[in-house]
Amino acid sequence: MTQTPPSAPKDDSNRPEATASPINKPENSPEERENKNLSRRVKDVEISVPIVYGTIAFWLGRKATESQSHRWTVYVRGGTNEDLSVVVKRVVFQLHPSFNNPIRVVDSPPFELSECGWGEFEIAISLYFHSDAGDRKLDVFHHLKLYPLEQNGPQSTKKPVVMETYDEVVFPDPSEQFLARVQNHPAVVVPRLPAGLELPSSERRGSMKDHPLGHWFMNFSEADELLKLAAARQQVQAHIVKLRRQMSMVEGSSGTADPASAF
């Protein structure tokens, strides 16, 4: 039996040594810059986003059936109907389980959906925000109202039942990227920036004033609130004047009373 001799060891003394090539990481890549901007926080600054969520319900009148008496719309909008997509990435509406596909996802404005039905129920609404806002989520609840609070008289197909709730979403110590992106947007309220902080200007856009249901929306503007406060103040002042007159009349009548009547 012939045995194969072992191979002679190879002489590698003249082979050049292999050197590991360093991996050159790009400096200041877009990802690194984005992460850096997200990590930088603007202290003592709060971004406020006024929002309104609610429903508008129309009675179908002669077209109403036992199972579909109203057509309604549930929505999330800006405080004065601005486009919220600068802050809100997605809105999820959770309807009553009796609806087909009761969990509805809306990924673009207007953040709303319309349905037909006959019953009132609570709608769960989840707002998801963009990553530079901190990937936050806000859960709110709204009761769908189909019938007017006052039950006097028949329902009208021309005047809907509107139920809305006003709220403000506050982002404390926002990232520089988020602040720079939304600082000039009409849906966002940004206070005076700290001294020495300069941010790139952004285009002022995002109005949705021409919404088809806009004339039914409630007014939550500061001017409207100031008018209400002024009217309430006038009523209080008029009531104070009336009370003072009554007190002076009582004091006057007691001062002119016959002294003998006291005995």
From TrEMBL:
<keyword id="KW-0804">Transcription</keyword>
<dbReference type="InterPro" id="IPR038704">
    <property type="entry name" value="YEAST_sf"/>
</dbReference>
<dbReference type="Pfam" id="PF03366">
    <property type="entry name" value="YEATS"/>
</dbReference>
<keyword id="KW-0805">Transcription regulation</keyword>
<keyword id="KW-0539">Nucleus</keyword>
<feature type="domain" description="YEATS">
    <location>
        <begin position="41"/>
        <end position="185"/>
    </location>
</feature>
<dbReference type="InterPro" id="IPR055129">
    <property type="entry name" value="YEATS_dom"/>
</dbReference>
<dbReference type="GO" id="GO:0005634">
    <property type="term" value="C:nucleus"/>
</dbReference>
<feature type="region of interest" description="Disordered">
    <location>
        <begin position="1"/>
        <end position="39"/>
    </location>
</feature>
<dbReference type="GO" id="GO:0006355">
    <property type="term" value="P:regulation of DNA-templated transcription"/>
</dbReference>
<feature type="compositionally biased region" description="Basic and acidic residues">
    <location>
        <begin position="28"/>
        <end position="39"/>
    </location>
</feature>
<dbReference type="InterPro" id="IPR005033">
    <property type="entry name" value="YEATS"/>
</dbReference>
<protein>
    <submittedName>
        <fullName>Transcription initiation factor TFIID subunit 14b isoform X2</fullName>
    </submittedName>
</protein>
